[in-house]
Design goal:
By secondary structure, the chain is α/β, with parallel strands linked by helices. The protein folds into two domains: 147 residues, 2-Layer Sandwich (Enolase-like, domain 1), CATH 3.30.390.10; 245 residues, Enolase-like C-terminal domain (TIM Barrel, Alpha-Beta Barrel). Helix content is 40%, strand content 23%. Strands 7, 8, 9, 10, 11, 12, 13, 14 and 15 form a nine-stranded mixed sheet that branches. Strands 1, 4, 5, 6 and 16 form a five-stranded antiparallel sheet that branches. Strands 2-3 form a two-stranded antiparallel ribbon. Helix 3 crosses helix 6, helix 8 packs parallel to helix 9 and helix 14 runs parallel beside helix 15. The chain starts with a helix and ends with a strand. The relative contact order is 0.16. It binds magnesium ion (MG). Magnesium ion binds next to loops.
């Protein structure tokens, strides 16, 4: 009987740490200027029926332009605290066995604007369960990885030419095999940047672009012609999330001549599996950028990947700029469990951040290569001293 009781757990406390970790390099793109990681870290404490206390950690990246504001009337941290308290209700009200908790996590369908916080909740719950069960994430989910090594690509943010050149040369030195180039409204910038990229990386190098919802219809037509000249065929999110239907900009663009041979990748437009099915039905997006921080964590990301495959769409496992080692580890597990991600981004860690909150550096190595992490829970440990050092503000949820 004692053994049976061990497998019961209830969440007793939750606290959110608002981080501020400076980047090694100033970043900018068409919707925001950001020079530091502002991830929120969630710390959960759960009590097992034998009286032992277990800790789990999760991470949220809140981007209003991706999934909308949470609450207009409270500070971002306060509204995050309230939302997290709500999301954790099923795990606070009653103690549950591990398989019940996993089932509750799998079947949670919160409002789309809460998905970034669900990512923190889900990651922390999986982390706490791994520690509680003394299993790694693969054992916990009873799933074997599809691959043991991942090859990460890079992102070139919108930068002045000298900074872009420096970063491109660093990617080249590291042997990174593919890049996502952030472009915007200014055609002159787009052209000069892509010229520079081709000069440094070569004509055959694997490139795609992300517009971050930056274009008008006319700009899209004009830019697609230019991208063709540069041998680029994957274009992320030309317009941003919009109402579905034949009159949407993306639907019109997909039917236009300018879109011939182009694949549009949904980012802001793909928050839920429903969005993917709609994109497939309307023949708008051919590819989905799945990101744990946007889509609600590892389980939701795997669900998105399966939905995309069923709908006949390609997908990649992406990341948010500024993720800490928590999401690097969770993202790596997700990418290793997906059947066929075309690209994988993430694990930038020490390449981008001036410090981190994990004990180990999870950055990818030469060629963008990184091994999956076995036998160590979700694959990261938090250094609480480092966490305190990078915490700007904190709030106890309960
Ligand atoms: Mg994007």
């Amino acid at each position: 009987m004692a053994n049976l009781y061990k497998y019961i757990m209830i969440i007793k406390s939750a606290e959110i740490f608002q981080l501020k970790i400076p980047f090694k390099l100033g970043f900018s793109h068409s919707s925001a200027d950001r020079f530091f990681s502002d991830s929120m870290v969630l710390k959960l404490e759960g009590k097992a029926s034998d009286g032992k206390v277990y800790t789990g950690w999760g991470e949220a990246v809140l981007r209003e332009y991706v999934s909308g504001a949470i609450d207009q009337h409270a500070s971002l941290l306060e509204s995050a605290g309230n939302a997290v308290t709500g999301l954790l209700a099923p795990f606070r009200d009653a103690d549950h066995q591990t398989h019940i908790i996993l089932e509750l996590l799998r079947t949670m369908i919160p409002e789309a604007k809460l998905l970034p916080l669900l990512c923190a909740v889900e990651t922390a719950m999986l982390d706490i369960l791994c520690r509680f069960e003394n299993k790694d994430i693969y054992e916990l989910l009873e799933r074997e990885p599809e691959r043991t090594q991942l090859i990460y690509g890079g992102t070139l943010p919108m930068l002045p030419a000298p900074a872009a050149e420096k970063l491109l040369k660093a990617y080249k030195m590291m042997g990174i095999t593919n890049l996502r180039i952030k472009i915007g409204r200014n055609s002159d910038y787009n052209r000069s940047t892509l010229t520079l990229v081709r000069q440094i990386m070569g004509d055959e190098y694997d490139l795609k672009t992300d517009t971050n919802a930056g274009w008008t219809f006319g700009q899209a037509e004009e830019n697609l012609l230019m991208l063709r000249e540069f041998g680029i065929h994957i274009v992320e999110e030309p317009f941003g999330r919009e109402a579905r239907g034949r009159d949407s900009l993306i639907s019109r663009l997909s039917r236009s001549e300018a879109a011939d041979g182009m694949i549009f990748m949904a980012d802001e437009s793909a928050l839920t599996p429903d969005d993917i099915r709609a994109a497939a039905a309307e023949k708008t997006f051919g590819m989905i950028n799945i990101r744990l921080a946007k889509n609600g964590g590892l389980l939701k990301a795997l669900d998105m990947a399966e939905t995309a495959a069923e709908a006949g769409l390609d997908y990649m496992c992406g990341c948010h700029v500024g993720e800490t080692g928590i999401l690097s580890a969770a993202g790596r597990a997700a990418a290793s469990l997906m059947k066929a991600p075309v690209y994988t981004d993430g694990s930038y860690d020490s390449h981008l951040l001036s410090g981190n909150i994990t004990t180990e550096d999870l950055s990818f190595g030469q060629g963008g290569r990184a091994q999956i992490i076995r036998g160590r829970g979700t694959g990261f440990e938090i250094d609480e001293n480092k966490l305190k050092g990078f915490t700007d503000e904190r709030i106890r949820c309960f």
